[in-house]
Every structure is written in C-alpha cells, then in structure tokens.
Known about the structure:
The chain is mainly alpha-helical and 241 residues long.
Amino acid sequence: MATEHESPSQHSRIVxxxxxxxxHRHRTMAVLIGTFLVLLGLHLYQLHVFLDDGPHYRSIDFNxxxxxxxxxxxxNLGFAxxxxxxxxxxxxxxxxxxxxxxxxxxxxxLACDEYLVIHDGLTGRLHxxxxxxxxxxxxxxxxxxxxxxxxAIGFTKFFFSLPLRFxxxxxxxxxxxxxxxxxxxxxxxxLAKNFGGDDPRYLMYSxxxxxxxxxxxLIFTYSLLxxxxxxxxxxxxxxxx
Length: 241
C-alpha cells in the first residue's frame, strides 16, 4: 500500500525495482566482476608482453584515462549512486534518509570525477605543495584527504546505525577503496616523480591502486544490492536504518 508521500505508480516502481534486485543481484555482480577480470587480464597481458603504447594498449590501460577501464569505473560509481538514491526514495527507513541521498550525491560526483579527471586538474593548482615532499607529487590527495576526514566525521552516526553485517561490508569496501585511491597514490608518487609514469615499478603500483579501487566499489555495490534485497518490502515500512 502506498504511503501519503507516494503515488501508486511511484510505489509500484519502487516495489518492482526491489523485486528485480532480489531476483538478479547475483547475476548482476557476476557480470560486473567478470567484466573487471577481463579488463584486468587484458591490462596485465599488455604489461607483461611490453607492447608499445599504441591506441589498442591505451584503450585497456588502467593507468590511462578516457578508455574502457575508465568507462567501466564510471559506470560502477554511477550504478552505486543510483542504488543509494533508490534506498532514500524507497522509504525502507523513516530515519536518516537524507544521508542516503547525500551518499548518492557524493557518488555522482565521484563518477563525474572519474570520467572528467577533476582531481588531476587540482594538482596543477596546488603545485606549491609538491615542493614539500615527493609523496605529494600528486597534490590533489591533500584536499581529497581533508574531504575524506570531513566525510568520516559527518557519517559516523549513520555508519553505526547500520546493521552489523552492513557496517562490516561498507567498512571493508571503504578501506579497500581508500587504500587504493589515496594510500597507494601517495606511496607511488615518488616513483612517478623520479622515474616517470612509464617506469615498470610505478606501473605495477598504479595497477594495484586501480585494482583496489575497482575491488572497493564492487564490494560496495554488492553491499547495496544485499541491503536492498534484505529490506522488508516497500509496503511494510520499518524504522530500522
């Protein structure tokens, strides 16, 4: 039964999406993981055989932009944003809906950042920071680290309001993603500065970095699909987070 805040058609759409997710979530994850493994395999093969930096190589290189891995990463982030916004719209909860919408907005930004490479544009504007340490060669990590701290503080109560299973899954996905996106980006920066982006050691660092980013978002996507599937139907509202 639709609530006073929903039209019958909106209510039907919400229920239909949840049913589809319950039915197809494992198949969806299999496709996403399979696509990632294919892209990773092609990338590693190219690194192993040391093919030249031609157009075919660039199209599957994890360390380049505007190619198939970038498109796939953007798709993953956008799909996570959609699921987060859906959770807010579905009214599975009567509390903390604003946080789900906010998370959705953050992932919309991350998807745009992935495709448009907004973060790399900051490095040029923050070039003065690079003189302090080789680890700040990619200077965009500084403002993003500050934003991460603000995010962690702002969402602490929300995080601990989640059921234990999803706290664990969300936490693991966040640690894996941040380890790649910020941690290895910082640790690999001296190699990029001193030996260049084509240095084999840096290429392996950046490959591991991108792999962890992909793994983090895939774990998060699985967590969101499981969260939606585990909620009671939209007709039976509950007050749990």
